[in-house]
C-alpha cells in the first residue's frame, strides 16, 4: 500500500491491507488461517478471524520505528505457527471471510489528488482527497486498491447501480 493513501474503505468500513487480502481469498473460497506481522495487524486479524494463528514479529512505535523480534526467533515462530495453521485449516477450523457485494471502494489520499473530471466509468468523485470505485466482485476491488486497475466490462457498476443494489440488500 502507498504512503500517500490515508484511508481505504469498502462499503463504508475501514479496511487494511490484510482485510483486502483475506476478502480476496474469501471470494475464491479460501480461508485465512495465519498472519505474521506487526502487533496491531495481528490484533485486527483476530477480530476478523477470531481463532487465527498469528505471530507478532514487531511492535510499531511510530511511522518510522518498531521493536522487532530477532530474525532467527521470528523465523522459528513463523515455521512452528504456520505449520499449526495449516493443520487447523486442513481440519476445517477456518471458513472463508466473505462480505456480500456489490462493493464500493473509497481511497482517501493524504494530499489533494483528485479532480471531478477524473471520474470515469464505475468511479465517483467524492472530494479532492477521495475517489470511489464501484464493482460487482471483490477481485476487482482488490485489483484497483493494489494495482490501480479500473474494473472493466461487467465488473464495474455505476455509482447509481451500486447505491440501488447496496441499499436494497438486507443485513
Would you mind describing this structure in some detail?
β3, α2 (39-48) and β4 (53-62) form a beta-alpha-beta unit. The protein is an alpha+beta fold and 171 residues long. α1 (17-27) runs antiparallel to α4 (138-147). The chain is flat, with a radius of gyration of 18 Å. 36% of the residues lie in helices and 26% in strands. The two termini are 30 Å apart.
Structural features:
36% helix, alpha+beta, 5 helices, three-stranded mixed sheet, 171 residues, flat, five-stranded antiparallel sheet
Kindly, what is the distance between the CA atoms of the first and last residues, rounded to a whole number of angstroms?
Answer: 30 Å
Total strands: the figure is 8
**Averaging pLDDT over every residue, what do you get?**
85
Portion in strands: 25-35%
Which percent range fits the helix content? 25-40%
Amino acid at each position: 500500500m502507498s504512503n500517500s493513501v490515508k484511508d481505504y474503505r469498502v462499503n463504508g468500513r475501514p479496511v487494511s491491507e490484510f482485510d483486502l487480502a483475506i476478502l480476496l481469498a474469501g471470494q475464491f473460497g479460501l480461508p485465512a488461517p495465519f498472519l505474521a506481522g506487526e502487533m496491531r495487524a495481528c490484533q485486527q486479524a483476530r477480530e476478523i478471524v477470531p481463532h487465527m494463528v498469528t505471530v507478532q514479529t514487531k511492535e510499531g512505535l511510530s511511522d518510522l520505528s518498531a521493536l522487532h523480534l530477532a530474525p532467527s526467533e521470528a523465523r522459528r515462530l513463523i515455521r512452528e505457527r504456520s505449520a499449526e495453521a495449516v493443520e487447523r485449516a486442513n481440519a476445517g477450523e477456518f471458513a472463508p471471510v466473505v462480505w456480500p457485494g456489490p462493493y464500493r471502494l473509497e481511497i482517501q489520499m493524504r494530499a489533494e489528488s483528485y479532480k471531478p473530471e477524473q471520474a470515469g466509468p464505475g468511479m465517483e468523485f467524492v472530494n479532492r482527497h477521495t475517489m470511489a470505485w464501484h464493482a460487482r466482485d471483490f477481485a476487482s476491488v482488490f485489483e484497483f486498491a493494489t494495482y490501480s486497475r479500473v474494473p472493466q466490462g461487467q465488473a464495474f457498476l455505476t455509482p447509481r447501480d451500486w447505491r440501488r443494489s447496496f441499499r436494497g440488500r438486507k443485513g
